[in-house]
Amino acid sequence: GELAEYRLPTDAAELNSLTSKLKLFRKKSEFRALALPDGSTGRLTGRMADVGSIRADALNRALRHYLRTQLDTTVLRTRLTGSSNLIDKNNENLTLNMIQGMAIDVLMVTLIVLALFRSWRMTLVVLVPNLLPILVVAGVMGLAGVNMKVSTSIIFTIAFGIAVDDTIHFISKLRLTLGHEPDLFRAVRRTYLLAGKAVVVTSLILVGGFCTLLFSSFDGTFYVGLLIGLTLIFGVVAELTLLPLLILDIFGRRKPKGALAVLPTDAVSI
Q1: What distance in Å separates the CA atoms of residue 144 and residue 138, rounded to the nearest whole number?
Q2: How far apart (Å, rounded) are the C-alpha atoms in residues 106 and 88?
Q3: Ramachandran angles phi, psi of 98, nearest 5°
Q4: Where are the domains of the chain?
Q5: Cα 118-120-121 angle, rounded to 5 deg
Q6: Burial class (CB in 10 A: 0-12, 13-18, 19+), 193
Q7: pTM to 2 decimals?
Q8: What is the C-alpha separation between 216 and 228, in angstroms, rounded?
Q9: Which residues contact 117 (CB under 8 A, 6 or more apart)?
């Protein structure tokens, strides 16, 4: 029809005529799909191209602004809904919850490391090798086209917590080794040979456990096993390569006595 006819009635007689015609259709299923029988609530449905959640959010904000400024909210109240809008909100909430979970995880690990080692430098040494695998797996998810779901949004916090445990074990062993081996390079080498084997074995056991989820026909369970397994593998590689290099680079410039001060042997061992 003509776009000019898509309008509200301009006088009371036209409105009453239209209202009387609508009463004849209130009990029909077509009418109930668009409005309640009493006419208090209605629905307007439209279609648009898939422009992505970022562009759609900008369009929704512009639409909300238009409705607030052009409509009398005391007479007519509006609300955006629909499956696409709900999916975008769900993805936004998943992302925010994942970021909050990781932030809490990092904060707790920072406090624990500070309590054990009393060093901001050691906190940096612990966090970097464990955050790097998270970023790598996030990139793998993007390249592979793995969507962010409830199941996949929890893998980062789980994998980070597991990986940090091995790192603290390595650092604690190094601190004890420095008690009778003042040379930092030799202490790192000795710790690498002793604790490195335990780290590899425990990580392989954990990876094997999560790999059993790969046999699941449920996509969420499959991706949890795959992505956590990949994160743990990348974490072991980073821990056995990047962690010793960071320790030697950051603390190797100090004298052995200074290294012992940074890694106190009287702290509780893990």
Answers
A1: 10
A2: 27
A3: -65, -45
A4: 1-43, 51-80, 85-262
A5: 110
A6: exposed
A7: 0.65
A8: 15
A9: 123, 171, 175, 262, 263, 264, 267
Burial 95-134 (b: 16+ CB within 10 A, else e): eeebeebeeebbeebeeebeebbebeebbebbbebbbbbb
3-state SS string for the chain: CCHHHCCCCCCHHHHHHHHHHHHCCCCCHHHHCCECCCCCCECCCCCCCCCCHHHHHHHHHHHHHHHHHHCCCCCCCCCCCCHHHHHHHHHHHHHHHHHHHHHHHHHHHHHHHHHHHCCHHHHHHHHHHHHHHHHHHHHHHHHHCCCCCHHHHCHHHHHHHHHHHHHHHHHHHHHHHCCCCCCHHHHHHHHHHHHHHHHHHHHHHHHHHHHHHHHCCCHHHHHHHHHHHHHHHHHHHHHHHHHHHHHHHHHCCCCHHHHHHHCCCCCCCC
Q: How many CB atoms lie within 10 A of CB 248?
A: 14
Neighbours of 267 (CB within 10 A): 14
pLDDT digits (tens, 9 = 90+) for 136-174: 888 888 888 887 777 777 888 888 888 888 888 888 888
- What is the C-alpha to C-alpha distance for residues 270 and 268, in angstroms, rounded to an integer? 7
pLDDT digits (tens, 9 = 90+) for 33-75: 777 777 678 888 878 887 777 888 888 889 888 888 888 878 7
Name the CATH superfamily for 85-262.
Multidrug efflux transporter AcrB transmembrane domain (1.20.1640.10)
Backbone angles phi, psi at 42, to 5 degrees: -135, 170
Residue 35: what are its φ and ψ, rounded to 5°?
-160, 160
